[in-house]
Amino acid sequence: MYSDHIRDFSQSYTPADLITRFDAHFDVPLRHEYAIGLLRMQGAFTAEAPAAERVGAHWCDIVRSDVEYALLDGLRLIELSRGDAERLLADCLDGTVPHDDEFSPYAAARWQDGAGRIHYRLGNFAQARIHFETAERLASDRGLWWCLPDLRGNLYRAELEERRQTAAPEVIEERLDTMLDQWRRALADAEALHDPEEILRRVGSDEAATREREFLRGLSNLRHNVAVGEKEKGRAEESGRASLASLRLSETLGDWYRIGQSLNHQAQLDPSQAPGLYRQLLDGEWRRGRQMARQHLARLKGGVQGASELHGLLRELAGGAAGGRSAGMDIEIHAYTVRLFASLVDALDPARAEAEGWSERYSALAAEVPVQRQVMADSIRRVVALPAYKRAYASAVRPNYLERIARLLTGEEEPGLRPLERLEEALGLTEESSARELLDLMSASALPFLDSPPPPLPEAEPLPSGRVGGDGTRRAALRESVGGAEFVRAMERRQREFEDQFLRRPLETAPHDPEIAHRVRMYTVNHPDTCIVRYFAHGPAGAVRIGAFVIRGGRLDCVPDLCGADGLRALAEDLPVERAPSRPECERIWELLVAPVWDGITADGLPGHLVMIPTDDIFTVPLHIAVPPGDAGMGTPLAARVPLSHSVSTTAFVTRGRHLLKRQPVEPDDDLAAVIVARDGVSGREVVGTGWPAERTLIVGDVPDGLEPGVRRLDPDWGALAAVSAVKPEFFVYAGHGTYDRSCGQIGPSLEFGGDRLTQYDLALRLRLPRNRLTVLGACLAGQGEQTGGGDVVGFLRSLTASGAGAVGVPLWSVRDQAIADTVRVLLRASRTALDAGGAGFDVVETLHTEYREIARRPLDFASMVEFMPISLYL
Fold first, then answer.
1. For 429-451, what is each residue's pLDDT tens digit?
2. Helices (H), 94-209
3. Of 235, 237, 231, whose CA–CA distance to 261 is shortest?
4. 3 state SS of 784
5. Where are the alpha helices (DSSP H) in 234-335?
6. The whole model's pTM is what?
7. pLDDT band for position 465 (50/70/90)?
């Protein structure tokens, strides 16, 4: 039969020969399917094949997945072959594989390297580094000299990227220097062992052996890494030389993958040569390189033609994902193409389009921007840990969690569980589905930090002057529209700037603690004076209810039905933001959210510390001023009855150490930094009369009257915000006007800042508070926009917490200037008074409770009393 000829042809090659030649003869010319097809015909992927052949064959297919960015395929292949690979590795390490067998350790090492490449693409740098370390160690132990340069280049790069996610910037800078030294040393060691010039001559006459070709390819990888490192250090000339050296090796080998890397790198180094270099890349064999070239050539072209070309590329990428190649998983290609497309469309002039007769084309392109963003989100969020897409994922899957929690509480799910186990499981599911993005941000100590100004905001409508009346001057108010649609679009650009950082450098996903319910019970056993109330949502879509867990003294109780989600939303929307809530409104908060859990809170007497953890719309409800109906006299708000704080999740409070913020040490050299915009009724007197030394005080903006002379002052600009980060202030205050444009939704409020505005995204990207003990945003509505329908915390609370802030105080209504200034001053002064307390530390919760309790005892009318309790405190 005719097929017998094909069978006979395939059997003229052995699997071991195909695998050992794969890197130099199939990966280099991007002919992966040639070898993979032959390996399949020979049964190398089957259980009957020898273990080393199975592992090596899967490595070949993993490499194909990596080059094509079919990352889901790569993960599947890793899982399919993991058992074989681990057993082969063990046999190589314990001596079961004879020392004269070079093929088995080669296959084992290359499989580890391939798995590392897939995890690296997905941003899981820690896992990638482990795989690369294993590969490098095995190859080094077994003397596999020809693949060591490549393995070491990958290992050192993964080590650097892993440190980027967890280390401070100065540590990363030092680590980059170390990596450059390691890359250079690896190059020198390899070149001392085998002269690359001699090998190059043999390659030119096609006499070089397979191993020598693979060795040269590894040198090219090392030289490219050096080029990238030198570019990051700002040494363009050195980077260019290393890139040209890498390119010389790649061109001799005909390695289009690395040729494309070098051409792209050189185009970034020298924009004047970029068009010609990208045209070379466009003519190459590397599919992803051609896509990169199309990206940049369209960017350089600009206008409607450039936008149209990018739209065509996006359609191809989406088609590739649908066809199984999962091109959407390629963060750098798909996400960057979407960003370029959106920026080119944003730059188009609709008036010009109308005048020149291409308005329909403009409208079609503009309509495609949100569509393409969604396509990108749908593809990326399946695998990659990105904040923007985890939120979308949470919105899609959270209803399943809510229904499971409800079924657990009613006994419909896992009916065999004991009552306590049922509650622990429900609390665990609540934590698993809530605030996950913030926990991920908190797990990385080195978030992206930008020192460049953000995208500019348009000139907005003038903020309302501080209104002076019988209730005093307020710090601005809620606006239905601050600057119209143009302002909202500009705010969205700042949101995208934040999210785009994680398209390029995704966060590791913080693991869920399955034992969180047990840990919180243990915490309350060891802190018997603390009571934790964890609000939660549960139930099927359209019938979601709000409940609460109450944990004190090791007991875990549940009140499953406080109200419906719609009732909670109605309460949140009915509460005023132009003033503090009235007594009937405070009583409504109590009846709905406090009264049902009050017996559990006080079962052992009033707690010494009540921690209330919101969910959904409760983030916008000022629980601290809730008052029981019929309370005698003026009524005593909750925060005046009991020391009260909030937290973003039980996990953050108990296992991420936020409980440690209640009482903190203070030192004479603590720094205080304040951004003050003292106009239209803002006094900035929070920082006056605190006892703070002038030499430890930094003021950005206006110096308030009465402040001790000698403080350091900076104009309010983006450089000044970077200066605040450099100081690493233990205490940070903002005093100024804040506004919340409802049309911005979860983008949240903004704060005045010189001639610009501060958004939550600006604080997340441009402020770092690594040693902070207390931060207070003394601007109205700063606590608004703190949650999403997907169970994540957003707003200033998220940004400050992720930036390293300690305890965070935020107001939820348009506060009086005197009220917020007096309250913050009390906290700052108490931190200095604590210096004389013999090491007792500064207890921010107790200090705020004492102040609120004293206010409740003053001869004030109810409205004035509540006004002087302006902030909610989060640990």
1. 888 877 666 666 666 656 778 87
2. 103-121, 125-141, 148-166, 169-193, 196-204
3. 231
4. coil
5. 236-253, 256-269, 274-282, 287-301, 303-322
6. 0.60
7. very low
